[in-house]
Amino acid sequence: MNALFDGELSDQNKLVCVTDVIKGKMLESTTLIQQAANNTKEQFANSPDLQSELVNAIITALDAHNAMSTQALNSPSVREGIKDILLNHAELWERLKKKAAASRRLRAGPYREGV
Question: Are 48 and 69 found together in one domain?
Answer without folding.
Answer: yes
